[in-house]
Amino acid sequence: MEKHVTKSLSLILAAAMATATLAGCGAKAPTSSTAGTAQTSGSTAEGMVAPVPADMDYDAESAFVYDAQLGEFKAMLDEAKEAGTQSERFAKMALAEAKMLESATLVPQSTRGGNYTMGRVAKRTGPTVYWGTDQERVHNLIVTTEMIKAEHQDELKKMWNKLKGTGTYEAKAAEYLQKNGYTLKDTYAKAYYTEPKTWDATRTPFRTDMSAIVNTYDGLVEYDMENELKPALAESWEVSDDGLTYTFHLRKGVKWVDAQGRELGEVKADDFVSGMQHMMDSHGGLEYLVDGVLVNAHEYLAGDVTDFTQVGVKAADDYTVVYTLEKPTSYFMTMLGYGVFAPINREYFKSKGGDFGLDAFQAAVDSGNYTYGNTSNDIAYCGPYLVTNATAENTIVFEANPSYWNKDNIRLKKVVWKFNDDKDPTKAYSDVKANVIDGTGLKAAATEACKKDGLFDEYVTVSDTEAATYMMYMNVNRKAYANVNDSTKVASAMTDEQKLAADIAMFNPHFRMALAMGLDAGSYNAQLVGEDLKMTSIRNSFTPGNFVTLPEEATVSINGTEKTYPAETYYGQIVQDQLDADGVKIKVWDAENMTSDGFVGWYNPENAMEELNKAIEEVKQNGLEISPENPVHLDLPVFMASESDANRANVLKQSIEASLQGNVVIDIVECADSKDLEDAGYFIESGEQANYSIYNVAGWGPDYGDPQTYLDAVQDNYSGSLTMFLGMY
Fold first, then answer.
1. pTM of the prediction?
2. Are 106 and 725 in contact (CB under 8 A)?
């Protein structure tokens, strides 16, 4: 998330209630040949004409499509980034988000959390900050031998709210649990659903990767369980008066070790320089975070500057790291908890075949000798854990690093991940009962099993909702009709005529809005979290409406009318005002409860048909006639062996088809396993590999504390991590 993407979080995998985060793909992705490509743009079938001009290469085609679908959003976002004050910036970003939502290219559906949960992990004993990857750090979780009762979990949440910021919650929570008869333990077991693709912290935007990797290294700073930013490898830091220079002073004596615990050297300031350069050289999906933030980062990434010493990160001496920014960036400190700022031991990296410099790194990869990050044995460690076992789709074991600088202050000495293929929706629940794992969220089937077992009332609580947002993605420029890595898998049954009809329809924003308004979000969500909680985790905006408030008054123009917002105005209120001014009949902000969550703001069959009728009239100019006798067919890939995935897919199909009165048919394309489903979209490298009409397997979480962390994910020219899910770049 939540590719976290836990770029936030970043790109987040929705399947199996797991979260994988994706930051952005800042490098131009390679263009690959695709199986089953539709007819050439501009061709006709039964008199139909494609909406994209013929004879464009893929980059030009993407630019054309992006401008048509998201051009207004892009222009308004660029304007927001140039705002004079932070309040004006936030307000203008809210207006830009409204335009993106109006495009119905990606449609918010739900968030993480807000589901039933049970286990042995004490509430709020890990970081819960919205951005970065520190939420995945587990070393100070308080875990008990006994299942924790709901009444005690609720009391812990109240205690956290009271003690947040005092630095006393950890000790008080441990004391409270022990007084209530719980035994604290130093081991923790959890389920995982997706195998890490790499162990290189600086080269992945996926939360599925970072949730493992983040426990192998420390950054400069780290959020604690009270969500306070604390020193980690940096003992102290200062910021220049002009806000352009951040100087961090490293603690001395911190050791690098290999996977066997053998010492490799001391952590030095140069390790942060080498980590940053490798991150930029590799174009692994994180570089967009510093593009335009660090001095000359953009120029280095573009190849205009080849001397990395000109980039705004330097080792002033062995223990002093200095970052120089292009302009004051209010959210800079909130970025440091993400892999983009992870250190790398330069000599160890070279011993694994690595090299520095854009061309030199690519040559190292092409040589076949580059292995850094390929496995957990191919990285250097400076964090709380060493990976002592990593058996694919089975077990990953983290054991306390005996050389860790803060080894005396970590609670958990051993962490075990156990693979769950998610075919059995009650497996995680059964594993918690059997003490195989220490906690789980409960899907609908597991909730029913828990109630039947008589454990529900005593042990189950509702988890907090989080900042990650899961979406329904509309492929507005589809090229692939089978998975590009295996043309026999997830293959569409569409005819050429149906492909072209879908191309024309999906290019029309009213058609896409009709799809979005036709989905019964409550029933859809119920298949994952159960009927009782179906509303809790529904999300209606991309950026949570309460993510930020205006620090001071700001005046902006909404459709030519000046409007002044007072300090403390919520971001979501401004988004809603722009939608209302544009006459778009969706609700994304509940002003009374100050949230974008917990209500159905899009679904309305009457409004859906109104939008569809507009689309029907507009697509006639392309020669497309839409009617129940000539419906538009759309592909939805689904892992049908997962009960919850199958149920959600059927709700999506049935509700949209009913809302649109038979004018649209959702064709479920069965995936043999979860990997095939992920290969259809989640793990694609460019938009032309997106093998679907509609996709619902990925979300996005924030990387830092500014709405830009969401909105940049929908940028053009290969710089937006989510844009490829829409069929572009």
1. 0.76
2. yes
